[in-house]
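This is your field. Have a critical look at the following sequence-structure pair:

***
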Amino acid sequence: METAYFNPDGAPLKTKVVYRNGVIAAAYNLKLSVKDGNTAVIYWDGDNLNPEDDNYTLPEPAGTNDGRIIRLRNEFYGLDPVNSHDYEIALEIWQGETMINRNSDIGTITGQTQNSLMFTKLVKQ
C-alpha cells in the first residue's frame, strides 16, 4: 500500500486515473473508504473508452480525508497484444497543482482479461 502525505489545511485533494503505454480497454472503480472501516465515503465507476476525464475531487476540507484509503480496481484487456506489449495504470493523488503521490501497476499485456488493484492511504503531515 502506498501512502500519500498531504497538508490538511491545503488545497483540495484530487485523484486522477491514468492509462499509459499499451493499447488497452479498461473499466475501473475507485473507492474512498472511511478511516478504519470498509464503508465507502465516495464510489466512482469509469472507463478509458471515452474522452471524459478520469479525475475526481475528494471531500473538503482536505483534512477530513486523514486516514482514509483510496482503492483503485481495474479490469482490462489489450486491444493489440501483438504490437503493444506493456501497460501502465496509475493512480495519481494531487493537492492543488502538485502531485503528492503516484501509485502504479506496470506489466505485460497477456491477450486475456487482466486485473489490477491498488491502495493508497491518505495521511496528513
Summary: The domain at 2-124 is CATH 2.60.60 (Lipoxygenase-1). The radius of gyration is 15 Å. The mean pLDDT is 95.
